[in-house]
Design goal:
The chain is of the alpha+beta class. The chain has helices at residues 24-27, 53-68, 92-105, 107-115; strands spanning 5-8, 15-19, 29-34, 39-44, 73-80, 83-88. It has one domain: Gyrase A, domain 2.
């Protein structure tokens, strides 16, 4: 399977994107537009497993910065352990790609942290 980002057809939300990968726990990203809350939810699967203080802090900072850098983003805020809420007029594909780049840069550290659980 490639690491492409593709639009999916979920039930409910108006628009959703996901990263296709053979390593979903480490490299999986899902982005869903939720009209009811006026923005996007970007889910980074690896954050469920990253509990190490320095790696967790680094990932959170990098993810927030990467999402803020996407054209059209007005605000980025953490909504849950592995979910970021993004407002503005960004592309769901670009949000997914931005988060994927961060995860790729830290993939070996994420795998090491997962082995330590």
């Amino acid at each position: 399977m490639s690491d492409d980002v593709q639009q999916v057809s979920p039930s409910g939300p108006a628009e959703a994107w996901e990263r296709l990968t053979d390593d979903p726990d480490v490299r999986g990203i899902e982005t869903v537009k939720v009209e009811e809350i006026g923005g996007w939810q970007v889910t980074v699967c690896a954050m469920e497993f990253v509990r190490d203080g320095s790696l967790e802090t680094d990932m959170r900072e990098r993810l927030a910065a990467a999402l803020r850098a996407v054209n059209g983003v007005a605000m980025v805020d953490e909504q849950d352990r592995e979910v970021w809420f993004v407002t503005g007029t960004p592309s769901g594909k670009e949000l997914t790609q931005a988060a994927a780049r961060v995860v790729d840069q830290l993939a070996s550290e994420i795998r090491a942290a997962m082995r330590g659980l």
